[in-house]
Specification:
Blueprint lengths: L7 H19 L1 H10 L1 E5 L2 H8 L3 H6 L2 H21 L4 E5 L8 H7 L8 H24 L4 E5 L2 H9 L13
Parallel strand pairs: 1-2, 2-3
Helix pairs in contact: 1-2, 5-7
GO molecular function: hydrolase activity, acting on ester bonds
Organism: Opuntia streptacantha (Prickly pear cactus)
Family: Belongs to the 'GDSL' lipolytic enzyme family.
Length: 174
């Protein structure tokens, strides 16, 4: 990955470390209450799509985009299930943004007109579809859980496609 992000495994290790410290500070019962009543906000997938799959050629040799998005959804589902096993119950996950329309991708691959990159857009749509389906399944599978998808794709795409509705008159100027 080119961006400075923590892997899901590293994030889980940090969460487990936090749990140990919390238990030491407030005890087992209070920790269980705090963890089960907390709200977890999770973003997964966009870095893997934009900065790994489309930037590092080896990923495209290992997986086609359908298999890669399935793998990302699988990793996210495992992460959610591990959080659930540790006591988390209320989680909100963002879907991925319009990856091919992000300024970095338009600059790097969008040509002189900085157009949206079609292949990355297709990857985002594919991931989001699989992701939403998986989260609905997990909601049913994990008793007492409340897992929701926060759609960031649609409003961001609307802003990019119809910028003058939202204020900027020259969206590509910066």
């Amino acid at each position: 990955t080119l961006a400075n992000t923590l892997s899901l495994d590293d994030q889980l290790k940090l969460f487990k470390e936090y749990l140990r410290k919390l238990k030491a500070a407030v005890g087992e019962n209070a920790t269980s209450t705090i963890i089960s009543q907390s709200f977890y906000f999770i973003c997964a997938g966009s870095n893997d799509i934009t900065n790994t799959y489309f930037t590092i050629p080896v990923r495209r040799l290992q997986y086609n985009i359908s298999a890669y998005t399935a793998l990302l959804v699988h990793w996210a589902a495992d992460f959610i299930q591990e959080l659930y096993a540790l006591g988390a119950r209320r989680m909100a996950l963002t879907n991925v943004p319009p990856c091919g329309c992000l300024p970095s991708q338009r600059t790097l691959q969008g040509g002189p007109l900085r157009e949206c990159v079609v292949s990355e857009e297709q990857a985002a749509v594919l991931f989001n579809s699989k992701f939403s389906s998986q989260l609905r399944s997990l909601n049913q599978k994990l008793p007492g859980s409340r897992i929701v998808v926060l759609d960031i794709y649609t409003p961001l795409l609307n802003l990019i496609v119809n910028p003058t509705r939202y204020g900027p008159s020259a969206p590509n100027a910066t």
